[in-house]
Structure formats: C-alpha cells, structure tokens
Amino acid sequence: MSDRGVRGDPVPPAGVSREGGALFGPGPHASTGITSGIRIDTATIASLAGLAAAILQFAGALKSSPVLAGLPFDITVLSLLALPPLLALLLLTRRWWVHPLLAPSLAGAGLLWLWAVLAGTWSLSHDILAAKLPEIVLLGPLMLLAGLAVGADAAARRWLVGLVLVAGPLVGASVAWGLATGSVVLGGAVGANPDLVRVQYQLAGLIIACAAGLGGVRAVEARGWAGRLGWLGYIGAMAVAVLLPGGRTALLSLGLCVALVPVLRLWSAAKPRAALGWLALIAAGGVLALGVMLLNPARMEGLRTLERFTQGGVESSARPALWRAAMEWGGAAPLGVGTGGFTLAAGYGERRGLYPHNHLLEAWAEGGLPGLAFWLLCFGGAALVPLLRLRRMAPGRLARVAALVLPVAMAAMVSTDLGNRMVWFALGLVLSTGVVARRV
Q1: Cα dihedral sign for 196, 198, 199, 203?
Q2: CA gap 326, 366 in Å, rounded
Q3: I want to staple 433 with a disulfide (CB 3.0 to 4.6 A). Which of 10, 284, 289, 386 is the partner?
Q4: How do residues 239-288 score in pLDDT, each as one tens digit?
Q5: Among 108-117, 255-264, 293-302, 349-358, where is mean pLDDT lowest?
Q6: O-antigen ligase-related domain location, by residue (predicted)?
Q7: 298 is in which domain, residue-wise?
Q8: Overall domain count for the chain
Q9: Is residue 11 part of a domain?
Q10: Is the Cα dihedral 241, 243, 248, 254 positive or negative?
C-alpha cells in the first residue's frame, strides 16, 4: 500500500476541507502549456528539500564519515543555506490541507519561543544565552516548518527516508573504522575536543537507530523472501553497529524502533497476526543474540555500548543530579531562572554541557510554570495529532514518521536541550501527520 497522503481521504476541492481544514495554494488549473511544464520540473526540484533537511538533521552523525568530514565545505552550513529556498519552493508548488488539530501545538510552540525571549531578559547567563537563544527562536521555527512540510510531501519524504537508509550503514562503518584505526572523527576534525566524544556516539547512534527502524518497515513491506531476508540482514548490521559507539539510549531506541515500528505498520494495515509474528521474531532474535554473548563473553570486548551498561546505570552518570537541580529550581522560581541560566543557578558556571538533560525539566527550570505549560501544549498537543489521526493515515507513512521520531524523542528526554534543532524537526514530522500535500 502506498504511503502517500491520507488513507481513504479524497482530494478536497479547491478551498474546501471535508474535516474543517484549510487549503492553500493555487488551484489545479492555475497554469497551462509551457508554464505547466516548468511547474512540474520546479515541483520535482522542490522535493530536494527532503534531502537538504535530512542532511541538516543528521549532519553531526554524517561527519563521522571520513569521506564527508574531508570535504572542502561544511555540510551543515551547505544544507542550512540550501534548505530555506528549497522549502519555499516546496510550499509554493504544493496545495496544502492542514487539520485544525495542529493549532494547539503550533500555538504552544510560538508561545514557548516568545517566552524564551522574554525569559532571557532576566537570565544571568551571557555566553549560553547568546548561543542558545538564536537556536531556539531562529533555527527552531525553520526546522519545525521543514519537518512539517517534508513529512507531509511524499516525494520530499522519500528523499529523507532514502538518505537515512544509506547513511545508517555509512555511519556505522565509519565508527567501526575509527575504532579499528584508533581515530575518531568529531565534527569533521580528527583529534578534536575529547569532551565531544559523547556527542559523537549520541549522534551516530541516533541515525543508526532511525535506519534500523526504517529497515524494519521495509522488511514487513517486502513481497518476496529474498527482500525480507535482505532487510532483516540490514537490521542485524545496524544492531551490531549501534553496539560500537557507546550510546545506551541509541541501543534502547533501536530495540524499540525495530520491535514496535513494523508492528505499527502491520497493525494499522489491519494485519494483527503478522504484527504478533514480527514481535515473536524480534524477541527470538534478541534472545539468540544475548545467548551468544553470554556463552562467549569475549565477544563483548570492544562493544562500547554494552561496556557502558555494565559500568553502571543511570545513577552512575550526572543526570540524576541535574534532574534534581532542575526540579528544585522549577519549583523555587515561578518564572524560571531565565533562558540559559540553569547552569549558573545550579552552581556550574557558564557550562552549557551541564544543562538539565531533559526537555521538559529544562523548560520548567528556565521558563518556570509558563515555560512548562507552553512545553506541554506544544509537545503534548503534537502527540495527540497522530493518535487522533491514526485510522486516517496511510500505514507506511505513519510508520516511517515513527521510525524517524522515536529515537530523537527518547534523546530529548535524557540528553539534549531546547536549542537542539533535531527535536524541532522531529516535532514537525509528528505534526505532518495532520497535513496533506498535493502537487499543483
């Protein structure tokens, strides 16, 4: 079944929405003749917004590859420059149907950005505020819009999914090569700040987990056994790759993506038996892999992710202390300590790396009760969109969005801050489940 559009929804006539939505863009007969031919070509070019958005979303992980790290230009800057014009072209060459369910979340996002600006006026921070606030209020809206538009358009979404499926093995192989040669590429430079190692394994693990989830979707969609076995082999390779960088959250994300996203694909397509069969297959594969490692513990040597699990749980990290401090300041300061002011209030100085490591707690600590309310409206409202639209969504489209969002959502609750562009893009992807895009 195709993952384009919304299952069972006929294309509404110009200016009319059957469910109360709004249509934007010129009508289907807005151009003819030579102009029509140019418009079709322009629409194809516009779909490259999906590629630019994918590169910007996963640029940090892509730079793990020596090939990309050695380019004479920065792929982050290049994709950031390319995304706005391609995104504008995408918006102009499609007719858009937007469900009213998006309104609360978009209002929450706008209020959260506005409050971040206001809260910055009483923040004690200078360096963190100067770096973080532009990321929230300038890059955040761009990434949200990109996720919303790319997730809604079938052609742009194919570029996004395709890049992740290719980049997952590339990043995994790059990490393996770096471990074998004793070098790690961080942000495009060998021998960079060792403190960035944690960023390296987090970003690498994220794209590997996303790729594995998408591979699971392709496996259950494959029609022949050759295709199914091929995609199962792909998932296995990604499972091995995620054991190398050391990201525990990435490993958990991969497990959930591989187990649940294909089930979502099958269940929403009214195939409950196949969904249960997939769960049984993944459970059996996990037990088999665990048995192999327990029978021969030497196989675990060099698997940094498993080593970090054996070195202690969450209590061995700084996260519990940061979470407690964030909750204390959230309760003590009704209006928050100000954007970027948490580390100073907690006594850590201007060290951005010691942020609360939880999106919600950061909004509460730095934005107070208004920040917490706006965050819940923004992200909680977004979560309701796919839930309420579940029966109207094409199963393939819904599953692909879930595979791309789940690892980022988990990371947002344990290892990223409000200025992280990946979270805003993932939010846009979630909201895209309430949007339909058709070529003009």
Answers
A1: positive
A2: 8
A3: 386
A4: 988 887 767 788 889 999 999 999 999 998 889 999 999 999 999 988 88
A5: 293-302
A6: 237-376
A7: 22-439
A8: 1
A9: no
A10: positive
Q: Is residue 5, in this structure, part of any structural domain at all?
A: no
Structure tokens at 25: 């863009």
Label residue 317 left, alpha or beta by phi (over 0 means left) and psi (-120 to 50 means alpha).
beta
- Can you give the chain as a three-state secondary structure string? CCCCCECCCCCCCCCCCCCCCEEECCCCCCCCHHHHHHHHHHHHHHCCHHHHHHHHHCHHHHCCCHHHHCCCCCHHHHHHHHHHHHHHHHHHCEEEEECCCHHHHHHHHHHHHHHHHHHHHHCCCCHHHHHHHHHHHHHHHHHHHHHHHHHHCHHHHHHHHHHHHHHHHHHHHHHHHHHHHCCCEECCEECCCHHHHHHHHHHHHHHHHHHHHHHHHHHHHCCCHHHHHHHHHHHHHHHHHCCCCCCHHHHHHHHHHHHHHHHHHHHHCCCHHHHHHHHHHHHHHHHHHHHHHHHCHHHHCCCHHHHHHHCCCHHHCCHHHHHHHHHHHHHHCCCCCCCCCHHHHCCCCCCHHHCCCCHHHHHHHHHHHHHHHHHHHHHHHHHHHHHHCHHHECHHHHHHHHHHHHHHHHHHCCCCCCCCHHHHHHHHHHHHHHEEEEEC
Round to whole Å and give the CA distance between 438 and 194: 47
List the structure tokens of 107: 């209002």
Assigned domain for 313 exists:
yes
Question: CB of 350 within 8 A of CB of 312?
Answer: no
Distances (CA, A) of 400 to 127, 213, 395: 38, 8, 9
Residue-level pLDDT at 302? 56
pLDDT tens-digit series, residues 48-68: 999 999 999 999 888 877 778
pTM of the model: 0.86
- Tell me the backbone φ, ψ of residue 314, rounded to 5 degrees: -60, -35
Q: d(Cα 394, Cα 152) in Å, to the nearest integer?
A: 11
